[in-house]
Amino acid sequence: xxxxxxxxxxxxxxxxxxxxxxxxxxxxxxxxxxxxxxxxxxxxxxxxxxxxxxxxxxxxxxxxxxxxxxxxxxxxxxxxxxxxxxxxxxxxxxxxxxxxxxxxxxxxxxxxxxxxxxxxxxxxxxxxxxxxxxxxxxxxxxxxxxxxxxxxxxxxxxxxxxxxxxxxxxxxxxxxxxxxxxxxxxxxxxxxxxxxxxxxxxxxxxxxxxxxxxxxxxxxxxxxxxxxxxxxxxxxxxxxxxxxxxxxxxxxxxxxxxxxxxxxxxxxxxxxxxxxxxxxxxxxxxxxxxxxxxxxxxxxxxxxxxxxxxxxxxxxxxxxxxxxxxxxxxxxxxxxxxxxxxxxxxxxxxxxxxxxxxxxxxxxxxxxxxxxxxxxxxxxxxxxxxxxxxxxxxxxxxxxxxxxxxxxxxxxxxxxxxxxxxxxxxxxxxxxxxxxxxxxxxxxxxxxxxxxxxxxxxxxxxxxxxxxxxxxxxxxxxxxxxxxxxxxxxxxxxxxxxx
Length: 499
Hints:
Layout: H1 11-25, H2 40-43, E1 57-68, E2 72-78, E3 83-89, H3 90-93, H4 95-101, E4 109-118, E5 124-135, H5 151-156, H6 158-164, H7 169-188, E6 192-193, E7 199-200, E8 212-215, E9 220-224, H8 229-237, E10 242-250, E11 262-271, H9 275-294, E12 298-301, E13 304-307, E14 313-316, H10 317-323, H11 336-345, H12 356-367, E15 376-379, E16 401-406, E17 409-416, H13 421-435, H14 442-449, E18 455-461, H15 462-469
Parallel strand pairs: 3-5, 6-10, 14-15
Antiparallel strand pairs: 1-2, 1-4, 2-3, 4-5, 7-9, 8-9, 10-11, 11-18, 12-13, 15-16, 16-17, 17-18
Helix pairs in contact: 7-9, 7-15, 10-12, 11-12, 13-14
């Protein structure tokens, strides 16, 4: 619960509120007529000329450093582009304005107009001819301005993190650039961006626990979507042959360094394409985005240099357990009993050890996935773990599907879509029976009965892509407002102590 009365606030906050009272008494009221014509970072590269004919600039930003002297002072202003030093001299701004300026606090947002010069130490500086308070900062900035030591506080109060760590803003600029790069690539490939509903009557398109809500107008229980898949495939049935959506997806499950309950997915579907076509497209998409965002064909993640210039390895799940997981070729991994033996000997947990597909997946999770650092397509997953995938023509025990793994993380999941409505209905029924449920996606099966052309579909986790390209080891670092456990404290949202 946030403190409401001034008397309960720390002394430094009470002092600032008192300053605000005096400002209000003088007629000041949070002015809103500022006209900025320059940004701090841009002025660092501007030329310097004689003051008599120099160009004048108006900037605005938060005062984050302050060196007050008798008749002249230096401050640093931080705006959306970066930080710039400002020189304020009493003889130039006038005694009244200078005296008022000296009462300003760190964190206040100022407007400054003046011309550029270089100090004796060579620092580009704005020589102030006028300075004005725009917004009063009533809560002192964290004591250690250059970085919040409390990691959880960075997540709970991201606005303070962005003030205190301007370089951290680059992560979120890169996130926006990555999403823009994805859009540009798919648009150039003839894909149409669409939007599909977030609210559904049933959770469909993936295996996950949904968030539930109630629709008052319809008097109906509903859930937030757990996948984008089924509505997008209905659009392909309707004749939109290349569609994609970038949207939030919600799964009421655990938190980890790689998982957040709400996350951003890209899903795209292309008629008359196979999962093999999508492997090639995915390679090209990632190379395009990395080149646009990082201006190179590789990136650093942790201790690893990830090279996208070479063709990505393609290997089946079964073969990868042998070749990368260390299981001898003498062991027949197509035999459920052999898979069960390895699971038992190695004490590997499995959701359903009587299901061959689940058993092979458990082996792969334990023995292979952590070893996959360079981009690798794992293909031909077991049919039982792929209810929406087309069965492989040569071996119906597996499906035409791939997962792209980079640095031990699943980045993409794709398959040749199952477009046989009777096969799809039967798989849905099997899945429902295994869960003890009755509902299946009848409306989607009905759409398939009208005819889904041969189609390839794929989902890419945008958050994980951003993690990789910003060298972030936890998903919370690339989400502006990650989900956190609610704190029951006097200072709501776990605010930092004042300086």
